[in-house]
Amino acid sequence: MKSPGKMTPMMQQYFEVKRGLPPHTLLLFRLGDFYEMFFEDAEVGARLLGITLTRRQEAPMAGIPFHAVDNYVGKLLAAGRKVAICDQQEAAQPGRLVRRQLTRILSPGTMLSASQLDAAKNRYLCALDLNRLGLQVAWMDLSTGEFRLATDPHPENLLPVLTALDPAEVVLIEGELARWQALPHEQHTAHSLHGFCADRVCTELPGYHFDPAAGARTVMTALGVLNLQGFGLAGNHAALGAAGALVHYVSENLCAKPENLRSLQEYRSAHTLLLDPATLRNLEIFQSIRGTRDGSLLGAIDRTVTAAGARLLERWLAAPALDLTTMRHRQAAVGEFLGQPSRLAELRELLNKIRDIPRILGRLQNRLRNPRELGGVRDTLTQLPPLLASLGGFERDLTGAPPAQVTSLRAQITDLPALRDLLSRALAEELPNDLAEGNYLRAGYDEELDRLRGLTSHNKKWLVELERQEQERTGIKSLKVRFTQVFGYYIEVTKANLHLVPADYIRKQTTVNGERYVTEELKQKEKEIFHAEEQSLAREVELFGGLVAAVLAEAASLQRTAEALAELDVLTGWAVLAREWDYCQPELDDTEVLSITEGRHPVVEQMLKSPAQSSSLGSQTFVPNDTALSCTDAQILLLTGPNMAGKSTYIRQVALITLLAQIGCWVPAKSCRVGLVDRIFSRVGASDDLTRGNSTFMVEMNETANILNNTTGRSLIILDEIGRGTSTYDGLSIAWAVVEHLHRSPERGPRTLFATHYQELTQLEKSLPRLHNYSVAVKEWNDDIVFVRRVVPGAADRSYGIQVARLAGLPLAVIDRAKAILGKLESDETGVELPAPQARPRKKISVAPADHAQMDLL
């Protein structure tokens, strides 16, 4: 932006700040009670916010009230813009330029204000560096201080967690995004990363910010340590460059070092159950196919009542740990809470009053402070004694072995009676959101504050008495003593009474309805009032700073307690879920077995009972089904049956039950045994990706290739309709080859559920010993079908496509014609009258499977 030739001192100040900002950053410049935008910023801001664009000395400008800035900034950030805040550092004085300073830059990944954040969602900022060593990644939730890094020579191992984290902003090396886009399509990793970044706000930094050695120094400075050994990290960790770039970027935006970073943890994909981006989407883990939380697995299993608990549940789903001990501890805790429903209800009521301590601490540590934040700490500390007593009740009342998990969680909660007493004595019951409003400390907390407030109160009484006296002295009954921020205190007289004004009144302003006056006595009292109010507020702010310091002195204990409370929230929520929907505790082990008795889809089951569904279709009961898979015996379950019969629901429910078991949740089944799974893959449905030049079939093949190239013997795969995006023979051939490839190991392979309409594939059961045919049963009645929803052994005898087409409402003439054509095709007769061009006659094809036994593909 070019600055105009001749500028006022204020505009010179504006351009000095503006020139130091990153490109395309909107500057909000504080002028009195407003934040103003000028020139191009004003035009962009007015358009995005729907506010009035005005002019000041021919310069476009647009302003927003300072007290509503968070709401307006939220809208700008949602539009993908960055916003810089330049605040006044002193009170305005006549004839003197107010000192102003850039206080912070806000971007989608560095927001801290509660009004700009979704309390139930983590808000991640991520840095990526794809180099010769692989993919280097770091991510941070600045609002809570969570900070992690990861490196992997195989970038596809990190894409699952990056997709699940869903960062709001990505930091990259300058030019990297364009370079990835320009690479040939065969460079799958680069194109996958470009696709990951394409839908997010991206910020590019010079490459030297990603230097690992410099990054290590930057990170150690931010953490306040001399080395990283205490975090289990070597000083030459490849991802420290990305971590350092994140810290640099955050420091630039905060205009200071981030003060809430206390640790740096390494993420290892080998220790995590991986769900690739396609699987997260196909299984609707975090959002439904409609893009909403309702209808997702997260929505179905979330019974949390605290913001921190909701975010913890999201993290557990994003990166399920491959640690049997952790899973078993969580499941055991659910069982302990489930055993005492009355105490569970009492505990949940107490948790409902817990405030968002991690984010409150994050704001306090990063200099965003207001009285309500301390009120949140006070309210949480107030709940700790009864909450600890309630947990103690579980320990006393449970019979048999001591409730180890309840005891462990209780031990992690630190009661802070001294801090609780301090905040309770100091803070008023109702707290403002702005320090400048004052009156947030209780009377009696500080003698000096009480004295200053007394002066102010006395002066206010003096003003009331002055008004009475002046009414009597002048005979003007309507005379009023009033106050405005602009003119201060004055005496207001209406036009009808101007002839009664005394000679000692000094006229200050003429209004439409009268005149405003002051007296020497009133002017002197005004100075006293302002001085007393300034002193009172200054003392209150000083005392508030002491309270903040007291809270931050206990930040480590508060953080540990908050983490324990969040875990308690998730686990007690799962106990509520298990009781409500009759879930069972799964058995987890290190075998290769997956056995489910009367399993149910956790999302569909709830939707069938939802009020909206019940009102439209009546209450329905989900039909449970069994599953038995083993890498060495029943490795592949080939599922056939008509459309709408429930094949997709069934294979999805098996994957979701497995995932629930491995995050430590109980599962919707009568019984369940899960041998540890390292990856879950799905290829379900497909759609065009025209923006990246991919057809439906290409998307399908990309997802299938990812599965075949990355699966292991411990993986779980669900495949639905492989090969349907191309011609029948091509699709059948690909599906056939995929099944053989998955069965290729002579002893074991990934546990697989394969749903298909290719009846020819069912013959593979004869040559592939670990493949078993199953079908979804239907009943026929007068040429109609009834969906039973039961999965039974054996292949389906036919696909019932025409019956399903009738249910969909196809015209009767089309249905009748389809029957005639089907009859001719199935009898393989020639010369039948078919629509041009003549359909290719079906051939009898011999396919040699891996064991070279001849079989017919019909």
Description:
The protein is α/β, with parallel strands linked by helices and 858 residues long. The chain has 27 helices and 29 strands. It has a 7-stranded mixed β-sheet, sandwiched between helices. A 6-stranded mixed β-sheet has the order 3-4-2-1-5-6, sandwiched between helices. A 6-stranded mixed β-sheet has the order 11-10-7-8-9-12, sandwiched between helices. A hairpin with a 2-residue loop joins strand 3 (54-56) and strand 4. Helix 15 (371-397) crosses helix 17 (417-426). It starts with 8 loop residues before the first helix and ends with a strand. 38% of the residues are buried.
Keywords:
858 residues; alpha/beta; 7-stranded mixed β-sheet; 27 helices
Task: List segments where confidence is low: pLDDT < 50 over at least 5 consecutive residues.
Answer: 829-858
* Morphology call: elongated
Strand % is 15-25%
Describe the main β-sheet briefly: 7 strands, mixed
**Structural class, from secondary structure content?**
alpha/beta
Q: Residue share in helices?
A: 40-55%
**Averaged pLDDT:** 88
Adjacency order of strands in the biggest sheet: 13-23-24-25-21-26-27
The total strand number stands at 29
First CA to last CA: what distance? 72 Å
The number of helical segments is: 27
What is the rounded Rg?
34 Å
